[in-house]
Amino acid sequence: GAVVSQHPSWVICKSGTSVKIECRSLDFQATTMFWYRQFPKQSLMLMATSNEGSKATYEQGVEKDKFLINHASLTLSTLTVTSAHPEDSSFYICSASSGYGYTFGSGTRLTVV
Amino acid sequence: QKEVEQNSGPLSVPEGAIASLNCTYSDRGSQSFFWYRQYSGKSPELIMFIYSNGDKEDGRFTAQLNKASQYVSLLIRDSQPSDSATYLCAVMVSGTASKLTFGTGTRLQVTL
User: Fold this and answer.
1) From residue A32, how far is each of A48, A56, A69, A79, B44 by CA, in Å?
2) Nearest-CA neighbor of B92 among B19, B33, B15, B12?
3) Over the stretch A52-89, which tens digit does the pLDDT of each residue have?
4) Cβ separation of B98 and A103 shorter than 8 Å?
5) Does B88 touch chain A (CB under 8 A)?
6) Measured between CB atoms, does A57 come within 8 Å of chain B?
7) Interface test with B, best of A43, A49, A52, A111 (most B CBs within 10 A)
8) pLDDT > 70: what percent of chain B?
9) How far apart are CA A6 and CA B34, in angstroms?
10) Distance separating the N- and C-terminal Cα atoms of chain B
11) Residue of A34, A100, A109 with shortest CB distance to B99
12) Using H for helix, E for strand and C for coil, what is the string for A30-73?
C-alpha cells in the first residue's frame, strides 16, 4: 500500500525559532500534498494544499508567510513553521492522494515553549 | 451549520455488539465519503470509502450512504476493544480540488 513518511514525529522548540516538517511519499508519486493541523479534541483542519512545482494554496485564515510550504519534487513536501509561538503548538499531519485513497503521514507533535 | 457533523460521543458498546456511527453533511455536491479511525496521538487511518448510495461492506465494517438524506454511517460488527478510537467522517466536494472536509469525530468505547 501507499506510505507517507513524516518526520520528525515530535519536536520541541523555543519561541521565535523555525521548525521544518518533512513528508515523503515512499512508493508513489504525490502530485498533491495536503497539510492539516489538529488541536486536542478537535478535528483535522486543512491548512494548505501543495502541488509539485507550484505555489501552495492556503485556506482562509492561514498565514502563508508563517507556514511555508515547499513541494519541490513528486515525493517530498515540507512545511516550515517560522517564528513559532506557543499558540502554534499542535499536531501537524500531511496527506497525499494515492491509488488507495488519501494516505496520511504519522503526524508531527510540535510543542513551542 | 457545520459542513460535516458527527456526534462527539463517547459511544459506548459492549464487546461483540454492533457499533453504529453517523455523519451528516451539508453540501449536496459532496461526491466521496470516507471513514477514518484515529487512535489518540496518532494520525488517521482509512477504514473505507463510499461513492454510491447503498451499502458497502469490508470485513466487519459496513458503510451506508444516503445522498437524498445527506448522511453516511459506519457499522462495526462484533466490536472489539481494539476498535476503541475516534472515528472521523470526511467528505470530498466536487470542484474543491480533492480537498477533504472532516467532521469532529465520534469517540467509540468498546467495553469488556
Assistant:
1) 10, 10, 12, 14, 18
2) B33
3) 888 899 999 999 999 999 988 889 999 999 999 999 99
4) no
5) yes
6) yes
7) A43
8) 96
9) 22
10) 37
11) A34
12) CCEEEEEEECCCCCCEEEEEEECCCCCEECCCCCCCCEEEEEEE
Whether B62 has its CB under 8 Å from any CB of chain A: the answer is: no
Residues A76, A105 contacting (CB under 8 angstroms): no
Q: If phi over 0 gives left and psi between -120 and 50 gives alpha, with beta otherwise, what is residue A5?
A: beta
Predicted confidence band of residue B98 (pLDDT cuts 50, 70, 90): confident
CA angle B109, B106, A2 (to 5 degrees): 100
Side-chain-facing half-sphere of B106: CA atoms under 13 Å: 24
> How large is the average pLDDT for residues A8-13?
97
Tell me if A34 and B49 make a contact (CB, 8 A cut-off).
Answer: no
Nearest to A96 by CA among A36, A10, A7, A21: A36
How far is the first Cα of chain A from the last one, in angstroms, to the nearest whole number?
37
In chain A, which residues have their Cβ closer than 8 Å to the Cβ of B98?
32, 97
